[in-house]
Amino acid sequence: MILCSRPHAQYLARKDEIDAAIRRVLDSGWYILGDEVSAFEKEFAEYVGTAHGIGVANGTEAVSLSLKACGIGPGDEVITVSHTAVATVAAIEQVGATPVLVDIEPDYYTLDPARAEAAVSGSTKAIIPVHLYGQPADLEAILSVAETHGLRVIEDCAQAHGALYRGKRVGSVGNLGCFSFFPTKNLGALGDGGMVVTDDESLARRIRMLREYGWEERFLSQIPGINSRLDELQAAILRVKRPHLDADNDARRRIARLYDCGLREVFFIFLFFFSQTTHVYHQYVVRSPNRDN
Description:
Oligomer: single chain
Helix content: 25-40%
Order of helices and strands: HHHEHEHEEEHEHEEEEEHEEHHE
Strand order of the largest sheet: 1-11-10-7-6-2-3
Radius of gyration: 19 Å
Distance between the termini: 18 Å
Largest sheet: 7 strands, mixed
């Protein structure tokens, strides 16, 4: 059996470095929101190309905290794509907003901007494009819809760490970018983890408060918040893996080209790519008119 992902192999590939990072945290005596988290937030934000990175407990809460930071809640609608992991919709429901699902562009598997515009109503507050399987969505067209209607764009980058859209990393194009570090992701921890990235200082400040009980000063809750913190162990592990991400994504693309060549003799429908984008192949997906067989 060929596994779709094998997090244990990722650990073994960097075992000595990861073990040393774990020991460093254990020896430090500081296990929540310390130097490792601060350093990883800075390093990952710089990699993506944003001013701020805020480590949170998981990718779902990265999206829900982003929505809360934008003031989105009950009575509001959020447009997203029907072909996505359930976590995207769960995050919208978590804040009490109503998910409005629109279909994909079938050649690309990502949110159709024309259908998104048709779904805008007086209650719409945001669009969440999903960079599914590692393929960047058509962000220029989506941003145009958002600007026309005064909407926030929150990128769901859970499957697209390192993907490029017209020279920019996904996560740096919309108002906010949301990442998951679940162990199977292209950049995976050895447990749960997530991050929000943004250039907006006020949104970053608000998310930092929301992730820890509404605190700006410890033990003083200024706004209602939750407990959604990236821990030191996972941050230290991710700091080991992050410098290898581009090389790992290059390897995924080389393997995808082998699949492309090997499957040409079989009647499959292959993915199209938007111009000036770089796919990172979180998954390699084809369609078939004879799928069930």
